[in-house]
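User: For my dataset I need records formatted as: sequence, then structure tokens, nothing else. Please produce one.
Assistant:
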Amino acid sequence: MDRPLTPLEPGSELRPWIEEYEADRAALDRRYPTRWAQRALERKRRLAELWLERVRGIDFDPLSREGRIDALLFENHLAGSLARNEADTRLAREAEGLLGLVESASALELDRKDRRWIQGREAAERIHRLAHDAEEAARRIEDGVEPVQAAVAADVLKSLRQNLDDWHAFYDGYDPEFTWWVAEPWKRLTSSWERLQSALAKAAGDTGDNPPIVGRRVGREALLEGLRREWMEETPERLIGIGEREMAWCEERLREAAREMGCGDDWRRAIERVKETAVPPGRQPQAVAELAEEAERYLAENDLFEVPPLASEVWQMTMMTAEQQKVAPFFYGGETISVSYPTQAMDHAFKLMSQRGNNPHFSRATVHHELIPGHHLQGFHQERFKPYRRVFRTPFWIEGWTLYWELFLWDRGFPRGPEDRIGMLFWRLHRAARVVFSLRFHMGQMEAPECVEFLVERVGHERSNAEGEVRRSFRGGYEPLYQAAYLIGGKQVYALQRELLASGWSAKGFHSAFLRAGMMPIEMVAADLRGGPIERPFRVPRPLLADA
């Protein structure tokens, strides 16, 4: 039987604490914008430790069911925050060791935030020393440094420069003494900073239109720790095995579709034919809108979800720039879908790759992934049902929900013919390949160029799109398990759906209950919807991937 859903569901005793913590954390983020300063890292660490001690001191047994779930989620989140803080602290120290100016550059803006007003002469002296330190750092880097170190340091330097600019703008032109003293040292700092940025870019190989892809590996133990935070009793090796089996399954289905298209077993040739169906330049927005409307009609006609009329009304569209498409060669979105397609600023080869890689049959899977029933519907519910649980952010819930729909709709026969099946299988193969190449990269078993070749040869990507995909995976600010979370999270959600439907739930009831439960690791969603006891410490009775 479906779980009853009403706006009057009982609340959680922990909700006020979680909302207070999130307000505290956001306040510190605004107060300490310099992410890499030890002062900022230490202050944020103390906040997490304070709240962790508080949550661990809760008398668990008298809590309501929702309160118990939130207590477990909150403790897990805070422990994860401390682990990330420790990793950031190590990175900051490495950057300080290489650059020698992270702390001194951060101190200027942090002192201003502490309302320690600086005199013009002192400001000039500190900027003068900082310019000298930047020149020394540039010389060291020009003598040779590892590309990964240079890439990480370049990201740190970019953040520091924004903080310095904010500090300078606060005083310059308002304090005559400051402006008089600092004008010349600031010019020197600007010049030395540009030299340092250039040296880092050169050391990282980032000097042309198509720079090499540099990423920082985290290692197997960090991957295991991330999986433990998801309450997943898995290893990277087992997840890679799931990805490889999924790739083999996709290739067999691709051969079947290729034969229907008259291409024999040559599914790569079939993919090339599908790529040639791209709409003319300027027509992609209309094509996206039509695909979005088709997905919504399918949900309604098959009683799979009651889409709120406002959710259907408010989604929007924007077009990606040529520069954005170097990192994100395909759609991404939520309430606003960002559409990837050729722009006038691209050279001819890039235009063709963008057009071919975003053809209608490929797009048919990505539009519903980004809009309805995917990320837009997901975000719409997050803002209205248990919004405080957004603090428990996990890619397995975010991307798992959207990937689940790709698996579910495939099984329901959503693709209309072999070309549509090719389009859906391309993306499914892509998600499986993400599991394999991302985890192997982080364990030191693949290099970034090998990951690009893997996507070109095993999935059928256009080369520039494959480069953008790998660059985004390792330099786009994603956590190490993010790329694996699409397929693995999708399989978790699908396993839970099959289990609950077998016990009498409807698909529509499951979909509503899943989104209304709020964001959390999928194993906790399963514990919530199954209706069994919630105990501390939390143990997973039946892992969702046990049969994967």
